[in-house]
Amino acid sequence: LSAATLQERGFQYLSSDNLGLAELHFLAALQKDPETTAVYAGLGDTFRKERKWDQANQAYQRVLKKEPDNLRALLGLGKLYREQGQVNRALPYLLKARKANPNNPEVLTELAITSDATGDDAFGETLFQQVVAMKPESAAALNNLGFHYLLVGRYVNAVTTFRRATDLAPENKLIQCNLATAVALDGNERTALSLFTKNLGSAAAYNNVGYLLMVGGHDQKAAAALQRALDLDPRFDARAKSNLDRLQGTSAAPLP
What angle do CA 142, 120, 94 make, to 5 degrees? Predict the structure, then answer.
């Protein structure tokens, strides 16, 4: 196979998260053409997804030596450092990627997520809103904005935004559960319980609502919900029982 064919197949495998075959094809492509920056960038993404941090970093840096504004490498390094919890090291790469690609939704979203992680909520919100304005029919963009509101404690805004997202993607269970979480934190546990039950089943619903009530300091309601989860399904013993024990002062940490 030619280097170009191997590269093409490597990206196909990468897009389907078949990382072993992606790595194999990228490495084979480099044996035939060791100077192709696109292959190194793809290899960097593959290593990053495999959590081979040092190898991913080396691949990305090799790309940037030749192409300082290479989007895949800049974005990849931003993700790599954020995924390792080094958000301040991620920012320069993401800001450079944004400067070169100011209207790229993926860059703006990653920069927004990283900004939230650094505590710059205002900048993160601006970026999330920018992506929604660019892609008003994207349930994913609305979900990201809703999750931002959830993280900063603006539950009314979160509920409104998640509802917009569910209108666009009514079968998306992740968004439905995010909506349920926001509704519960906004003080409407009955509606939250209904949403969680629809998507996860009754036992998981009571466990989730119980946990959220516990986080909100509603210990009596939380204990009742967690006990109900145990009554409905003993398989929830590990999570619900641990949370119950915590409420009773016998466990050190909750399980979500």
Answer: 75
